[in-house]
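Reviewers of the previous submission asked for a worked example of the structure-prediction workflow described in the proposal, so we include one complete record here. The input consisted solely of the amino acid sequence. No template or homolog information was supplied to the procedure at any stage.
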Amino acid sequence: MTQPTLPPPTQDELSRLAEPLRALERRVGEVVVGQAAMVRGLMVGMLCNGHVLLEGVPGLAKTLTVSTLAAGLDCTFRRIQFTPDLLPADLIGTQVYSPRDGTFSARKGPVFANIVLADEVNRAPAKVQSALLEAMQERQVTIGDETYPLPDPFLVLATQNPIEQEGTYPLPEAQVDRFLLKLRVTYPTRAEERAVLDRMAFTRPPALDARHKEPVLHPRELLAARALVDRVHIDEKVREYIVDLVRATRPEAPRRAGGQTLVDFGASPRATIALALASRAVAMLEGRAYVTPHDVKSVAPDVLRHRVIPSYEAEARELTSDDLVSQILQRVAAP
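From that input alone, the workflow returned the following structure tokens.
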């Protein structure tokens, strides 16, 4: 059943609801040197009510960025270090027996927070990943025979190291697909790295000052901004462009000379929804009530890279999923 068409937001509504979001983005930028693309991706994830996977080598300020973002948003924040010996109960909680009255009561785990940082998420075993998957998809957890809803907003920001594979467990494809975006966190520029040196090279690195600990965005403002995202207009031609991009990722589409398929598995319709939502969020952050093809192109790599599985032929040619997505963006004509 098609939902009714909502009127596009007015410029006054955009200014009023987008300004606190941009203020939060600036706040994070005052603490974290560089990494503007990562910060923008996290903002898009928050606006779209979608989880975000951060991939990058250690030391690129992933944890600092997430904790600063949570400090600027007036909400609860928990950091969970994933390890091979982590148990589902360590994540979602467990039932505790009371000898006084002979009953069990639920002790909720750290996943009951508005923003959850799952640090090195690929180090936890399958049972923990299964418990996290329920929380991410259903926004609820089951402890014993009872099901408990998670707070709203609820956002999982997970990190993983792309180079160290010892002691890690590959994330199930079903779980990876639940992440709205996968952001590749890269090295800073030389000027940014010099600024990091000047700011942080002390035996006791400076902590956040009082100004940076004060929230600039209330959860109710975030929920109101999400409602506004749904009203950002997407023209029919842009909608067709989004569908064409996602369909071009599937095995029957990206072929080279000789008919060799470069993709084993492409993006599902969930990616189509994610690409439309993320494009709307980008347009709103830019202060526009409509989506442009450039908005779609700007978020397409983050939406598609973890949903495109290169074939053996592509790996033999040393083509990554990012390379394949880049080829698709060049091949599919924008309106």
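The two ends are 27 Å apart (CA to CA). We consider this example representative of the routine output the project will generate in years two and three.
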